[in-house]
Amino acid sequence: MIRPFDLRDLPTLRRYHGQGLCLDSTLLATRGQVLIQGVLLSYLSPATGIFTWMCFENRDEHPLMGQITHSADSPFARIAFLAPESALESPQIQELLEGLVQQAGMRGAFNLLAEIDERSVAFEALRKAGFSIYARQRIWRLLDNAHQPDTEIYWKTAESQDTFAVQSLCNNVVPGLVQQIEPHSTDQLHGLVCYKNGTLIGYIYLKYGHRGIWAQPIIHPDVENIDIHLNEMIRSIPDRRSRPLYICVRSYQSWLESALGDLGAQSSPLQAVMVKRLAIHYKAARSFALPKLKVQPEASAPVAQSKRNS
After folding, report:
1. Residue 111 pairs with which residues in a beta bridge?
2. Band of the pLDDT at 149, cuts 50, 70, 90?
3. What is the mean predicted confidence (pLDDT) over 26-39?
4. Could you give the C-alpha distances from 151 to 142, 169, 196, 203, 237, in angstroms and in order?
5. CA 155, CA 191: separation in Å to the nearest integer?
6. What would the pLDDT profile of 281-306 be if each residue is shown by its tens digit?
7. What pLDDT digit, counting tens, does each position of 74-86 carry?
8. What number of other Cβ atoms are within 10 A of residue 9's Cβ?
């Protein structure tokens, strides 16, 4: 049996504190393990786009718990966590995942995403539920601030006039499959950009939280002296204070990893970025009206009755 979380489940929620498996690396990096706060928020205010479900087997006192997050009008939702991690080999995990998939679909999402270490017990469960890998990534954690270099490289805050250049960079660097699943939103840019001779060569998406700062770079592979560019990028991040920086490097940007290691960043295990396709979305091309054909009315032959006079 599967149903939404309600106040009856508070004892279970307290018991599972610290036992959840987070499948959203951005959430974990910026806010930490927020299982209790997130679950309560999903119950008190569904408008936040957070939804928590419970899965029971008969009168099971140790049900499974799962949560998804979905922003309004976003083409994809994310699995935030599954709990408890010790019970994710249970057969009921498939029922729970199916419930999360249905909830995401009802919200209008086309894809449900999950980020997970392939060595995790939940990896095979996701596979059985129809999730597939579309990318891989490592999270690099950097505690120290960058040193002050002597360089002319300049990263600045992205503004609305950078939108077209950022979209073009994404089209050139990010694989088409990834763009289909995670289309880059340029409605409002959040991050830094770097130009060289008037051409955009780098964009870094930033997301802030009280536990850390999430950074996801998109840098053109033709860039030289990448270590200098990354150092200046890190130094240019505003309002960092003492928070750790988590840099997400996707597999198609793996050439950045050596430079990050030289800067003192520590890497996580390789993660699989997985997707469950909920629907196929076809974006209609811009429509236009066909010109009306000017058709001349067909003239009918006159009917004449003639009588030959004999």
Report:
1. 76, 277
2. low
3. 82
4. 21, 23, 13, 18, 16
5. 10
6. 444 444 445 455 454 544 444 444 44
7. 999 999 999 999 8
8. 20
Task: Say whether the peptide bond before residue 149 is cis (omega within 30 degrees of 0).
Answer: no
Type of residue numbered 242 = S
pTM score of the predicted model = 0.84
How far is 273 from 249, CA to CA, in rounded Å? 12
Q: Which CATH architecture has domain 2-130?
A: 3-Layer(aba) Sandwich (3.40)
- Strand bridging mode 213-219 / 245-250: parallel
CATH architecture of the domain with range 141-269: 3-Layer(aba) Sandwich (3.40)
Q: For residues 168 and 200, give the distance between their C-alpha atoms in angstroms, rounded to a whole number.
A: 9
Mark 113-137 as b/e (b = at least 16 C-beta within 10 Å): bbbbeeebebbebbeebbbebbbbb
Angle CA(143)–CA(149)–CA(154) in degrees, nearest 5?
Answer: 95
Q: Please check whether residue 80 is in contact with residue 51, taking contact to mean a CB–CB distance below 8 angstroms.
A: no
Q: How many residues would you count in the chain?
A: 310
Break the chain into its structural domains and give their ranges.
2-130, 141-269
Q: Which two tokens stand for residue 74?
A: 């976003």
d(CA 167, CA 242) in angstroms, rounded, equals 32
Give the integer Cα–Cα distance in Å for 47 and 244. Answer: 30
